[in-house]
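Hello Y.,

Per our agreement to keep a running log of every chain we model this quarter, I'm adding this entry. I've kept the format consistent with earlier entries: sequence first, then predicted structure.
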Amino acid sequence: MEQKSNESTPNRPEGSRVLDANLVEMDLNGFIQKLRTEPAWISGDRNTVTVFKSESMRIVLLGLHQGAELKSHKANGVISVQVLEGQVEFSTDLQTCLLGKGQMIALHENIMHSVQARVESFFLLTLSINK
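Predicted structure for the entry above:
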């Protein structure tokens, strides 16, 4: 398998990191610490980093300040949301779940949903991409 890396960006000028390989290690606590130091987090209500990206799956670490919301939207694949820190409210038209550290949900594709942080929160979003 060809190893794939991202390019450096203004937010992360230190260089590339592996996004796809036979085995990708992810230091989630390190990513959370890094996200907290970046301008998007300091001056905005959220920050994100993609920690894995292949043709069939994406894993994104999202941080939301208290009260920040991901407005209603839908994904084109099955998703999971796993809370690493804090507490988020995950809502669909039919159900609302309050998720704390160590809790997660799975949701089928094309279902409208929103996420709101009750307190400062970090969670992993995994998207299984339909082809």
